[in-house]
């Protein structure tokens, strides 16, 4: 069955290229030209992924994204924008974007990111269908359907990418995972000139998952990679 992708993009040329490329790859794309219409389409139909421009008429992309997440939707969203400063990227990810692509972009890279996000969504969907909604690590619980995270009953707010990373780590708890493995499985492509992205996101997770708790769940094996494991009662 074809995956349905919503393109919210006001530039006709870019939107047309995206539609043609997505159709060529076997997807079923639809397009909206402004933020308000795009938000209505995003919430009124079932989509597998959304490509969302930030600089939109009627309603800007970040506000569209905020309202999508506020409505409880966990549809994977990739932001498309010419704004590529660190604060712009951080703002987009904090609002709930799963990925961020700067214009101009290579269509091959965008397609790779789309495939990765759809694959991650499928894996998590299969896990939720075959098992309980929740995955556990010690006193940490992660709900795959609602994407809610708690430790010792305390809610923890994670961005979509932070959730994907922590989910991958917990699903492989007790295993040592290299940075290359994590990049391949969670991001789905190689970062050029940004190889410390895993370390950055691990730091984010430590601040949210481990900070304030005497027992740490996330561990570093210097020169090797990362692993998560249950607390050692004897430590």
TrEMBL record:
Residues 132-230 form the OmpR/PhoB-type domain. CDD domains: trans_reg_C. GO terms for cellular component: cytosol; protein-DNA complex. Residues 4-118 form the Response regulatory domain. This is Response regulator transcription factor. GO terms for biological process: regulation of DNA-templated transcription. SUPFAM superfamilies: CheY-like (SSF52172). Pfam families: Response_reg, Trans_reg_C. Residues 132-230 bind DNA. The modification 4-aspartylphosphate is found at residue 53. One of its GO terms (molecular function) is phosphorelay response regulator activity. Keywords: DNA-binding, Phosphoprotein, Transcription, Transcription regulation, Two-component regulatory system.
């Amino acid at each position: 069955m074809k995956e349905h992708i919503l393109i919210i993009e006001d530039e006709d040329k870019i939107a047309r290229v995206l539609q043609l490329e997505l159709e060529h790859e076997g997807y079923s794309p639809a397009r909206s030209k402004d933020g308000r219409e795009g938000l209505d389409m995003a919430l009124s139909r079932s989509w597998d992924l959304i490509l969302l421009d930030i600089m939109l008429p009627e309603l800007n992309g970040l506000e569209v994204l905020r309202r999508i997440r506020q409505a409880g939707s966990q549809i994977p969203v990739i932001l498309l924008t010419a704004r590529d400063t660190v604060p712009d990227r951080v703002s987009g990810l904090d609002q709930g974007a799963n990925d961020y692509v700067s214009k101009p972009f290579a269509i091959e890279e965008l397609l790779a990111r789309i495939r990765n996000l759809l694959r991650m969504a499928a894996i998590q969907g299969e896990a939720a269908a075959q098992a309980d909604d929740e995955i556990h690590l010690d006193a940490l619980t992660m709900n795959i359907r609602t994407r809610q995270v708690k430790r010792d009953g305390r809610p923890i707010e994670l961005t979509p990418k932070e959730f994907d990373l922590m989910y991958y780590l917990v699903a492989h708890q007790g295993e040592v995972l290299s940075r290359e493995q994590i990049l391949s499985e969670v991001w789905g492509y190689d970062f050029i000139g940004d190889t410390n992205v895993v370390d950055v996101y691990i730091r984010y997770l430590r601040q949210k998952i481990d900070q304030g708790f005497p027992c740490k769940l996330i561990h570093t094996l210097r020169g090797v990679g990362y692993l998560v494991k249950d607390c050692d009662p004897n430590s």
